[in-house]
């Protein structure tokens, strides 16, 4: 009886991983049928399931190598294929081979990012991500597709979104460091300022949810690039002096 109970608990977090895959597949189907808003929200639902499976596994002490590998396979579907098909059906297909190339590179580099993460995970610093995480990339693609759906004036700049996703694909496999926010430690003087900042951000998202998320995710990605460029030139100037 105890063994049967253990097996049920072991399976439970993997059900959330399976739900993430299922949401990703339904998102792909929605994109093919032209229901882009539904496709975007299904990708966000996959994000929710992806966040829950690991936390439930840790809470129930059922983490395993199988669960980690299954989670990576789910990410390929939910955050690799689903956003790529969303991008292709909404924007990229009008650009012929270039659109196909951007779509393919997003999935390929996303898979490389996940494989590298699995290899480096035991040795990696929990406070940073090396390269843009594929869920973050999926949010970027999805939220900007929503922006293009909301504002027709952006349609003339479709090519900019394609180049942004192309750059994003390379950033996933780059060695640029991004904060993970998993283990944030704040000193007491910073608590009040952080609280005020979070209230301000929450207010912005309440008034302009799509625009606010688009701004936040874009600033996050640009911040990593800007920091990398600054560190590169700072180190050069420091070595010269």
Structure description:
It is built from eight helices and two strands. Helix 1 runs parallel beside helix 3, helix 2 runs antiparallel to helix 3 and helix 3 runs antiparallel to helix 4. It is an all-alpha fold. It has one domain: Four Helix Bundle (Hemerythrin (Met), subunit A), CATH 1.20.120. The mean pLDDT is 85. The protein has a two-stranded antiparallel sheet with strand order 1-2.
Give the CA-CA distance, first to last residue: 70 Å
Helix % is over 70%
Q: In percent terms, what proportion of residues is strand?
A: under 5%
Largest β sheet strand count, sense and barrel closure:
2 strands, antiparallel
Low-confidence stretches: none
Principal-axes shape call: globular
Strand order of the largest sheet: 1-2
Following the backbone from N to C, one meets helices and strands in this order, namely HHHHEHHEHH
* Corresponding CATH architecture: Up-down Bundle
- Give the CATH level 1 class: Mainly Alpha
Total domains: 1
Count every helix, treating DSSP H or I runs of 4 or more residues as helices: 8
Structural class of the secondary structure composition? Answer: mainly alpha
Radius of gyration: 19 Å
């Amino acid at each position: 009886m105890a063994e049967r109970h253990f097996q049920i608990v072991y399976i439970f977090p993997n059900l959330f991983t399976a739900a993430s895959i299922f949401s990703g597949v339904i998102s792909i189907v929605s994109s093919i049928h032209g229901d882009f808003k539904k496709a975007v929200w299904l990708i966000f639902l996959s994000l929710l399931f992806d966040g829950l499976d690991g936390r439930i596994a840790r809470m129930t002490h059922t983490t395993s190598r199988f669960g980690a590998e299954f989670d990576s396979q789910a990410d390929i579907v939910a955050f690799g294929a689903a956003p790529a098909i969303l991008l292709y059906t909404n924007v990229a297909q009008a650009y012929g081979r270039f659109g196909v190339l951007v779509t393919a590179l997003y999935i390929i580099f996303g898979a490389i990012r996940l494989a590298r993460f699995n290899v480096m995970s035991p040795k990696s610093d929990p406070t940073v991500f090396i390269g843009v995480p594929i869920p973050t990339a999926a949010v970027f693609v999805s939220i900007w597709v929503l922006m293009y759906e909301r504002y027709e004036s952006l349609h003339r700049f479709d090519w900019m979104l394609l180049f942004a996703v192309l750059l994003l694909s390379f950033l996933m496999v780059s060695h640029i460091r991004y904060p993970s926010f998993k283990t944030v430690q704040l000193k007491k003087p910073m608590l009040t300022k952080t609280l005020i900042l979070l209230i301000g951000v929450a207010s912005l998202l309440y008034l302009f949810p799509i625009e606010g998320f688009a701004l936040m995710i874009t600033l996050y990605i640009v911040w990593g690039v800007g920091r990398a460029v600054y560190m590169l030139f700072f180190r050069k100037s420091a070595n010269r002096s």
